[in-house]
Amino acid sequence: MFSTQRVIRLAARSFSTAVPLQSKVAVLGAAGGIGQPLSLLLKANPRVTDLGLYDIHNTPGVAADVGHVNTLSNVAGYTAKDTDGLKKALAGAELVVIPAGVPRKPGMTRDDLFNTNASIVRDLAQACAEVCPKAKLLIISNPVNSTVPIATEVFKKAGVYDPKRIFGVTTLDLLRASRFVGDKLGRIADVPVVGGHAGITIIPLFSQVEGLELSKEERDALTYRVQFGGDEVVKAKDGAGSATLSMAFAGARFADSLLRAAAGEDVLEWAFIRTDLYKSEGVEFFSTYVKLDKDGVKEVLPLPATISEYEKDLVKDAIAELKKSEAKGTAFVAGN
Ligand SMILES: NC(=O)c1ccc[n+]([C@@H]2O[C@H](COP(=O)([O-])OP(=O)(O)OC[C@H]3O[C@@H](n4cnc5c(N)ncnc54)[C@H](O)[C@@H]3O)[C@@H](O)[C@H]2O)c1
Ligand SMILES: O=C(O)C[C@H](O)C(=O)O
């Protein structure tokens, strides 16, 4: 039998254990399929000292429930009915994680969510720009390839934009790539995944995994599975939504990476950020290797020179699609 303390220690073991800073994390969409398990994982992270949970409904229940987990952080839950509920959840936040919005049903693309989620992300980003402009924004709401440009435009309009602090969370693609080759490798290895977060814009770089040898058929099948891993879950859930538990795990990992970087550790992650890497080809947002520090992105690294010809072709195809999604997000905020 595990004692409660041991269970908490085990839950926290996948995170780092030092507790050097006051770190408030706000979760917007905290009562949802991702928001609830993500809030639980953040509560188990000893680096988090305060959790501000916000949703349009049900957040007090989530906060009361998660708040009984015996780590030392404080938890407060607010809804749209509370006076200044959103502002209270955001006040003093170092990180704001945004999984608010509708998920896909079978047969839909992530872009089909644009009409609903674009305005949700715009309005929440506006509140962040007003209340906690220095916070790092972790955007989970789909379509990420458009919602990150949307948040960026909102911050620019508010005069508080810093590209180092706005991230599209693509960590779930990294988990999938790592897990899917795990059986072949007999171990869990990191697999870089670059590009964006929708179908062919998701590019796993299997060429970068030491000791991994794939036939052409295996490579094609694995690449497809990572690119369309989200559809696998949507289909299996059969109308009840998309990935929530694995996404919560992914979001908690990315949040922990930023908190560790804020505490002075050197951290390398992969995230969808603004970069000049493909600007000459008309794309300003791309998921690539990022070194993190206390301010967010310390350095954006290009793709390794050793990626395969196959992967280079995937990048070309992704750029054409990323360009459209980016333009759609930017035009939405501009009102075009
Ligand atoms: N980036 C990724 O890898 C990734 C992975 C999985 C899901 N997603 C996306 O995350 C989003 C959420 O998915 P889910 O399964 O948690 O959906 P969900 O419907 O279970 O939860 C979404 C929550 O957002 C809340 N919400 C809606 N409008 C809001 C607003 N204006 N302010 C605050 N909260 C609001 C809802 O009340 C709900 O509780 C979807 O857009 C989905 O496509 C992204
Ligand atoms: O597939 C989805 O719609 C949700 C998410 O983007 C995922 O990759 O699981």
Automatic annotation (TrEMBL):
<keyword id="KW-0560">Oxidoreductase</keyword>
<feature type="binding site">
    <location>
        <position position="142"/>
    </location>
    <ligand>
        <name>substrate</name>
    </ligand>
</feature>
<feature type="binding site">
    <location>
        <position position="176"/>
    </location>
    <ligand>
        <name>substrate</name>
    </ligand>
</feature>
<dbReference type="InterPro" id="IPR001252">
    <property type="entry name" value="Malate_DH_AS"/>
</dbReference>
<dbReference type="GO" id="GO:0005739">
    <property type="term" value="C:mitochondrion"/>
</dbReference>
<dbReference type="Pfam" id="PF02866">
    <property type="entry name" value="Ldh_1_C"/>
</dbReference>
<feature type="binding site">
    <location>
        <position position="247"/>
    </location>
    <ligand>
        <name>NAD(+)</name>
    </ligand>
</feature>
<dbReference type="GO" id="GO:0006108">
    <property type="term" value="P:malate metabolic process"/>
</dbReference>
<keyword id="KW-0520">NAD</keyword>
<feature type="domain" description="Lactate/malate dehydrogenase N-terminal">
    <location>
        <begin position="24"/>
        <end position="168"/>
    </location>
</feature>
<feature type="binding site">
    <location>
        <position position="117"/>
    </location>
    <ligand>
        <name>NAD(+)</name>
    </ligand>
</feature>
<feature type="domain" description="Lactate/malate dehydrogenase C-terminal">
    <location>
        <begin position="170"/>
        <end position="333"/>
    </location>
</feature>
<dbReference type="GO" id="GO:0006099">
    <property type="term" value="P:tricarboxylic acid cycle"/>
</dbReference>
<dbReference type="InterPro" id="IPR036291">
    <property type="entry name" value="NAD(P)-bd_dom_sf"/>
</dbReference>
<feature type="binding site">
    <location>
        <begin position="140"/>
        <end position="142"/>
    </location>
    <ligand>
        <name>NAD(+)</name>
    </ligand>
</feature>
<keyword id="KW-0816">Tricarboxylic acid cycle</keyword>
<dbReference type="InterPro" id="IPR001236">
    <property type="entry name" value="Lactate/malate_DH_N"/>
</dbReference>
<feature type="binding site">
    <location>
        <position position="110"/>
    </location>
    <ligand>
        <name>substrate</name>
    </ligand>
</feature>
<feature type="binding site">
    <location>
        <position position="55"/>
    </location>
    <ligand>
        <name>NAD(+)</name>
    </ligand>
</feature>
<dbReference type="Pfam" id="PF00056">
    <property type="entry name" value="Ldh_1_N"/>
</dbReference>
<dbReference type="InterPro" id="IPR015955">
    <property type="entry name" value="Lactate_DH/Glyco_Ohase_4_C"/>
</dbReference>
<feature type="binding site">
    <location>
        <position position="104"/>
    </location>
    <ligand>
        <name>substrate</name>
    </ligand>
</feature>
<comment type="similarity">
    <text>Belongs to the LDH/MDH superfamily. MDH type 1 family.</text>
</comment>
<comment type="subunit">
    <text>Homodimer.</text>
</comment>
<dbReference type="GO" id="GO:0030060">
    <property type="term" value="F:L-malate dehydrogenase (NAD+) activity"/>
</dbReference>
<feature type="binding site">
    <location>
        <begin position="29"/>
        <end position="35"/>
    </location>
    <ligand>
        <name>NAD(+)</name>
    </ligand>
</feature>
<dbReference type="InterPro" id="IPR010097">
    <property type="entry name" value="Malate_DH_type1"/>
</dbReference>
<dbReference type="InterPro" id="IPR022383">
    <property type="entry name" value="Lactate/malate_DH_C"/>
</dbReference>
<feature type="active site" description="Proton acceptor">
    <location>
        <position position="197"/>
    </location>
</feature>
<protein>
    <recommendedName>
        <fullName>Malate dehydrogenase</fullName>
        <ecNumber>1.1.1.37</ecNumber>
    </recommendedName>
</protein>
<dbReference type="InterPro" id="IPR001557">
    <property type="entry name" value="L-lactate/malate_DH"/>
</dbReference>
